[in-house]
Amino acid sequence: KSDSDTYTCDIGDAQSRAKLVVQEMPVLFKRELQNEEVKEGKQVKLTCELSKPDTPVKWMKGDTVLCASEKYELKQHGTVAELIIRDVKSIDA
Predict the structure, then answer these.
(1) 12-70: pLDDT as tens digits
(2) How far is residue 30's CA from residue 27's CA, in Å, rounded to a whole number?
(3) Separation of alpha carbons 50 and 80, rounded Å
(4) Where is the Ig-like domain (predicted)?
(5) What is 29-84 written as a DSSP string?
(6) H/E element holding 8?
(7) What is the pLDDT of residue 16?
(8) Is the pLDDT confidence value at 1 over 90?
(9) 50-54 long-range contacts, Cβ below 8 Å, gap at least 24?
(10) Are residues 81 and 75 in contact, defined by beta-carbon separation less than 8 angstroms?
């Protein structure tokens, strides 16, 4: 996208110009979240893989946006996004 601009070919006495518009590819899931089962008190990791590295990810439980805390750890490495839920309780289902 950052390559979008007007480009010029200059031969001294004349110029030719063209405008380049780069359309961003949509971000897709290469690997979606998988259902997990875990015993109470344990830790679980939910992982998904995106088609574009370092794409901002928003983790949600129902309609609630999750933020990093003692309970939730949010990680992202390139195209892989992870949510770690610590000390899982039945209300986390």
Answers:
(1) 999 999 999 999 889 999 999 999 999 999 999 999 999 999 899 999 999 999 999 99
(2) 9
(3) 6
(4) 26-93
(5) EEE--------TTS-EEEEEEESSTT-----EETTEEP--SSSEEEEEETTEEEEE
(6) strand 5-10
(7) 96
(8) no
(9) 50/79, 50/80, 50/81, 51/25, 51/27, 51/79, 52/25, 52/27, 52/79, 53/78, 53/79, 54/78
(10) yes
Residue 38: both structure tokens together: 């875990």
CA–CA distance, 5 with 35 (Å, rounded to integer): 44
Coil vs helix vs strand at 20: strand
What structural domains does the chain harbor? Answer: 29-92 (2.60.40.10)
Q: Can you give the length of the chain in residues?
A: 93
Residue 54 is predicted with a pLDDT of: 87
Output the pTM of the full model. 0.76
